[in-house]
Amino acid sequence: MKGQEWYQQETVVESYEDKRFSRGGGRLTDRLEKEAVGEALAPVEGRKILEIACGTGRFSVMLAQQGADVVGLDISAPMLGEGRRKARQAGVDDHLEFLRGDAARLPFPDDHFDSVFAIRFFHLVDEPKRYLRELARVSSDQVVFETYNRFSGRSLYNWALPMGSRLYSRREVDGMLAAADLRLTDETHEFVVPFGLYRKLPGGVAKAFRKLEEGIDRTPLGDSLASISYWSATVE
User: Fold this and answer.
1) β-strands 139-149, 167-168 pairing
2) What's the per-residue H, E or C state across 40-80?
3) How many Cα neighbours within 13 Å face the side chain of 25?
4) Which residues pair with 51 in a beta bridge?
């Protein structure tokens, strides 16, 4: 998996959220991503939810605050340590457990969770069908995941990244869903400007770009230009 060693470095974790989500355009993308996850999984109160590649717990803590019982799984011990700190600080550590593990071999029985989701994950994997099947195995109801789109501005942005990202066509996503015995129930397409570029922008500039994107979203070109897609599916 791409970036496996990089995400486990203590120095990366120390600056991870500060560089990406705490200022300017990064704060905007953090809010938009949380809105997308919340809408895809709602209602969450009383549900058992597993987050794959939970990192420092951005989404897991939010869902626990909304009344879900959450398990966050990640391969990085330093990331999980930061997640536990945030859960304690938010007062939700009784509804949120963080585990270190491999998403290709989840340590849970079949149908163990109501919902399973993975955000900022599938762009790193080398065998997406294998991973999606494993997510579907431990879910009794819903699987939500995100992909970076091949025919979008993300293709140009990828050239500037040290690790690059796996990009997906719609045909590839349909093949993944079929291989995992999942039925697509909803889809949302976002970010004409890749959110990696958003976080480099001052807040006011990022908001102006966002208004422009919202205008494009209302046109027939909106979905086809989006750099990211959120997929919600049910287990067959």
Assistant:
1) parallel
2) HHCCCCCCEEEEECCCCCHHHHHHHHCCCEEEEEECCHHHH
3) 17
4) 72, 117
Mean pLDDT of 160-167: 68
Give the pTM. 0.89
Q: How many helices (H) and strands (E) does the chain have?
A: 10, 8
pLDDT 10s digits, 50-105: 999 999 999 999 999 999 999 999 999 999 999 999 999 999 999 999 999 999 99
Residue 227 or 98, more confident: 98
Q: For residues 186 and 117, give the distance between their C-alpha atoms in angstroms, rounded to a whole number.
A: 14
Indicate the range of 23-32, 108-117, 141-150 predicted with least confidence: 23-32
Give the model's pLDDT for residue 217.
Answer: 83
Q: What's the rounded Cα separation, in Å, for the pair 123 and 125?
A: 6
CA distances from 52 to 16, 19, 104, 159, 187 (A): 18, 22, 10, 26, 19
One-letter amino acid identity for 176? M
Q: Which helix (H) or strand (E) holds 177?
A: helix 170-179
Domains and CATH numbers, the chain: 6-235 (3.40.50.150)
180 burial type by CB count under 10 A (0-12 exposed, 13-18 middle, 19+ buried): buried
Residue 223 in this model has a pLDDT that exceeds 50: yes
Distance of alpha carbon 2 from alpha carbon 10, whole angstroms? 17
* Contacts (Cβ under 8 Å, ≥6 apart) of 39: 188
What 8-state DSSP symbol labels residue 193?
S
Angle between the N-to-C axes of helices 77-90 and 10-20, in degrees from 0 to 180, rounded to the nearest 10: 50
